[in-house]
Amino acid sequence: MAKTIYTKAKEILIAPWTTNEQGALVAPTANSAAELAYVIADSLSITQDDPETNDIACETSDGPLYSVTTAGKYNVELNNASIDEDYLKNVMGWVKDGENIIAPVSYATRYIAIQIGFTETGNYLYLPKVQISPKLVFESLKTNIAYGTLSGTATSAKFGSEVSAKEAPIGFAKNAILTKTA
Prior knowledge:
Layout: E1 9-16, E2 18-19, E3 25-26, E4 34-35, E5 45-48, E6 52-57, E7 64-70, E8 74-80, H1 85-90, E9 95-97, E10 100-102, E11 110-118, E12 124-132, E13 135-137, E14 147-154, E15 157-158, E16 167-168, E17 171-173
């Protein structure tokens, strides 16, 4: 078995899911991604919760009658130091108001796709649909910087653009699925 080590992210791309005229969610197109080039070092974290087993107890024995095991969720978190207009609109859901950009009065559920390219392997970690709960952090500005925290939970969606693509919450791709917009 060949050794494959994932380290040194070379790029982090995100692409927002949108809604069509009927209000249905639409997956991002391959060339709709924006690069997060200013992610604070060691803030990117993708972790899977432990699997959860629910036993149905049996009245007449100590063993379970039936057990159901579900896979743990994939959680994503990163801190982005560049709070530019694209980040505010595409991740935070802010809107343009003349020359200003303002936060919405209430937040709607938002989804993005995330792709991480690796220097060592040339492979890409891809999460096709992440329900996000972003927030801005302005604290300790004398010794720190303001940043946007992007956190969320991956949900299953079509992995890739092929018609026969399977659904998954996360996977590795040999070729980039998302590309940067010009």
